[in-house]
Amino acid sequence: MIAWKLLGLVIVANGAALAGQTLCGSRCAWPLDFGLKLGDGRRLFGDHKTIRGVTLAMACTIPAALLLGLPAEIGASIALAAMAGDAAASFVKRRLGLAGGDMAIGLDQLPESLLPLAIVGPAYGLTWTGILGLSLAFLAFELAASRLLYRLHLRNHPY
What we know:
By secondary structure, the chain is mostly helical. The chain has one domain. It has helices spanning 2-24, 51-67, 72-95, 110-120, 128-151. Helix 3 (72-95) packs antiparallel against helix 4 (110-120).
C-alpha cells in the first residue's frame, strides 16, 4: 500500500507542475534557469521548467502526503526530487539538441519518478526492484494520461 501512496505523490508533484502550465499559460512562469545559456548556446533547462512549477509541486504534494497519512517532509522531498529529476531530464534533452516539447520516451518520465522514489522509498522498505517497477508504472501512466489530456485539448502534444 505504501508503494502506491508514494507513486501517487509522484503523480501529484508532476501533475501540479503541468496543471500550472495548462491553467496559467505564461503567467508567473519564471524560468528556473533564469535564461542561462551554457557554452553550447543552449539554455540550461528551457522555458518549461519554472519556479511556478516547483512551487505548485510543493504546494500540492505536501497536503497530499498529509491526506495519505504521510509526513509533510515526505511530500516535500518527493516534490523537490521530482522537479529535480524533471530538470535533469530537460538538461540532457537540451544537450542532445532536442527542443522543449520534443518526445523522448523514458527520458521524459523516468528521472522525475525514479529520483523521488529512490530518495524516499528505502525508508519505507521499497527495494530497488520495487522502485524501478513503480517508475515503469509511472511511465505507463504518464503516456496514457498525456494522450487523454491531448484528446481533451489540455495538452498541445499527445505525449
